[in-house]
Amino acid sequence: MGEMKNDGMMWALVKEKPEEGLWMKRVPVPEVGPNDVKIKIHKTAICGTDVHIYQWNDWAQHTIPIGLTAGHEYVGEVAEVGPGVQGFKPGDLVSGEGHITCGKCRNCLEGHKENCKDAKGVGVNRSGAFAEYLVIPSSNVWPCNPNIPEEMYAIFDPFGNATHTALSYDMLGEDVLIAGAGPIGCMAAAIAKFSGARHVVVTDLNPYRLELAEKLGATRTVNLKEETLPEVMKAIGMTEGFDVGLEMSGSQAGLHDMIHNMKHGGNIALLGLQRADAKVDLETVIFNGLNLRGIYGRKVWDTWYKMSTMLQAGLDISPIITHHFDIKDYEKGFEAMISGMSGKVILDWAHVND
């Protein structure tokens, strides 16, 4: 790929055709507006959303414009700042919040940016981070602490999903059920344990990912092909059902199972995306007085502060990063994600022009 050419172009992973795959091609370097920051990307991570875009599933076909640069999990350094930007300078290590909010709706004005009704997603509705450079508003840029390993910042977006979900209810001394041992479910298990939960039970059908959940702090993992939750509760001495449920699988069966194994008055946070026609047993929700809360994105910036300070306080989620590839081998990274035999996959951009 040779030296960086000064032709105003850069390498990016683009959804060039309406079919499976992403394509490495030259695209224009994005321009910097008055309040924008241009970030030179160091490392990116692959999200489940990126896999959907890669595989071109039903959601992607209805959402992703052809020609879009994908990606929204990254760390890099400031390359340039717009004339109106304060607090950032070239060379600063940064990551960023991938939901670009409108700043004008009621929720934005009240400081609840996670509920902005007009949010646009980096790498979904606008150019993403799988590129040499990304431009975002300075209000979306997060300064990185040099004492935290750089690659951890590449996964602050999904770590933030896990943190927002796990910290939506009190965990101290509680029995926690996590449905889905994908990377976000595994990180949520680590946070629940770190936050003082008693039992952290993680369910899935994938033995590799259940093993990963165990490494990250699950006190008990359950392969639902082999055991039922009532059996597990009995085995670990629980008598009344789970206090807190975190639904990370997006599976209708997972949510159904959770609703039927909560204590009366239990709290459920829903992050996994259910199908539009998913059936929910509302009779049990009502009779058992359950609280269900939908979770989207991260709180800005509450969640980001909590992530940084938990890591500084000794939370270790490093085992969730299982694979590293050079960006030129991005297809291997996607293969690892699609196989289900991975945690987070990091793609390194350092040698894209070699």
TrEMBL record:
SUPFAM superfamilies: GroES-like, NAD(P)-binding Rossmann-fold domains. NAD(+) binds at residues 184, 204, 209, 271-273, 295-296. It is an enzyme of class 1 (oxidoreductase). The active site is at 49 (charge relay system), 52 (charge relay system). Pfam families: ADH_N (PF08240), ADH_zinc_N (PF00107). This is L-threonine 3-dehydrogenase. One of its GO terms (molecular function) is L-threonine 3-dehydrogenase activity. It catalyses: L-threonine + NAD(+) = (2S)-2-amino-3-oxobutanoate + NADH + H(+). Pathway: Amino-acid degradation; L-threonine degradation via oxydo-reductase pathway; glycine from L-threonine: step 1/2. The lineage of its organism: Bacteria, Bacillati, Bacillota, Clostridia, Lachnospirales. InterPro entries: ADH-like_C, ADH-like_N, ADH_Zn_CS, ER, GroES-like_sf, L-Threonine_3-DHase, NAD(P)-bd_dom_sf, Zn_alcohol_dh. The record marks 157 as: Important for catalytic activity for the proton relay mechanism but does not participate directly in the coordination of zinc atom. Keywords: Cytoplasm, Metal-binding, NAD, Oxidoreductase, Zinc. Residues 21-347 form the Enoyl reductase (ER) domain. Homotetramer. Gene3D superfamilies: Medium-chain alcohol dehydrogenases, catalytic domain (3.90.180.10), NAD(P)-binding Rossmann-like Domain (3.40.50.720). Its EC number is 1.1.1.103. Binds 2 Zn(2+) ions per subunit. Belongs to the zinc-containing alcohol dehydrogenase family. Zn(2+) 2 binds at residues 102, 105, 108, 116.
